[in-house]
Amino acid sequence: MSFPVSIHMVWAPFEKTTSPIINNDYRFGLSFTGISYLNNPYIKNISYKVTPFAHESTHLGDEITMYGEQNIDNFYRVNVSYEYYELGLTLNDPDTLQGNLLSCKFGFMGLIRPNVGYYKYFENEILADTAFYPSQRWAEFYLELNYRKTEGFMASKTWNPSISFELRNRVKYEYSNPNKSPRVLCYNAYLGYDYVPKKAGAIKSVGNYLRFYSGLNPHGQFRNGYYNFIGYSVVAFI
To answer: Dihedral (C-alpha) 166, 171, 175, 179: value to the nearest 10 degrees?
Structure first.
């Protein structure tokens, strides 16, 4: 049993006036996980995750909100806040196995209150003549693949090549759409190396990856638009 908590911030540190915070996302929940080991050369274990309750909310930065209200005629703010449950099934959980490994994960996320939707709005935060509608869709699906190599060509005891790919079917936020919003396939990929220290310590490994993303903007109420980028990520595993 675990209580995962995450906070994600989008910040513009090089903006010349106020270096504003663009958006903050907050998530927390309750999860139960388990694993079964199999006597099979291909599928070595099956793990599951059941999250009966989780919450996500998002908030625009103060500078962005004040600027929009004062300078943009059609500016509006939507309160993205919802509770959801999640089910996940993983074949060959990489956290519990050694050696070269191909892992696969299937997942499903659904709203606990489908009639409320992903977001709400308040009359004092939108224009009087703006028509807004709650989201009519209530679920999304995802598939994740990961290949890690610790032995053989291009691998060593301290440097392990790794590649991960996620395909997620997400709901696009279309606030003024009275019908069901479209679904969009979002692609997320990592390619790089995991550095494993020779002496085991608090950090098991440090991942260094090139990252590619294409799909809906994942940041809060900006999920009504599209987002594509290539970047570099450093991930510490403890």
So the answer is: 150
